[in-house]
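Methods — Computational structure assignment.
A single polypeptide chain was analysed. Its primary sequence is given first, followed by the predicted tertiary structure written as structure tokens.
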Amino acid sequence: MGALVVRIVPIESADPAALADYRDLTDAALRRVSEPAEGLYIAESLTILERALQAGHTPRSVLTSPKWLEPLEAVLAGYPGDVPVFVGSDEYLESLTGFHVHRGTLASMTRPVTPPVGQLLDTARTVVVLEDTVDHTNVGAVFRSVAAMGADAVVVTERCADPLYRRSVRVSMGTVLQVPWTRASWDDIVSALRERDTTLVGLGLTDDAVDFDTYVRQAPSPLALALGSEGPGLSPTALADCGVVAKIPMGNGVDSLNVAAAAAVALHSLRLFR
């Protein structure tokens, strides 16, 4: 394996088309539409870039300032290929991206192809299913908990926020690049789980919801833990498809947790009692 060639390009002299991946990154609605369609995602910071490279992902280009160039070259060392590195002042980077790039480096990465949901579930014993979770911060936090608590995979529905949106990647501390995941319709998810005799457990506040602390002590394997959107939680359709609906015991008049916090608590309990 040859060493990666770092091709430094002063940003002022770069072809504007080559910088299109980095333009106006603060427009979240635009990025949600364009990044998946264009087959890219943005890795923000040297740490995230390093984890992306370790996961086998391919950089299209890198954007940085002079003070970050030396540590960037160290991260890129040893990887094959020719990567253009656009270098400019902090002020220029901010004018291009629309925000202060205080983590020093952005990389445009080729988006990996996700597997069919059935293939993902074939080897998974503990799965998290996110139904229409729309906040990128929450999605990233769930992935971080999945990695930390030893779950195997994440499946997100078609309207769920993009796990590879830069905020999700950043909040996940890059674990979204390591945790196997895919996107599928709710019906396809349920069908694939049933074909593999995987119990679908939804976290919800229905009248018949069982105590999760009690349930987890005899929880079956394989198991899929379903969480819903911020506010309403799992849809009525999703709740009806769950073999079990459970709720995390609350105190002091609190009825529920944020979806990311609930995922962390539930996954920790599963790790303790399974």
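Note: The chain has a mean pLDDT of 91.
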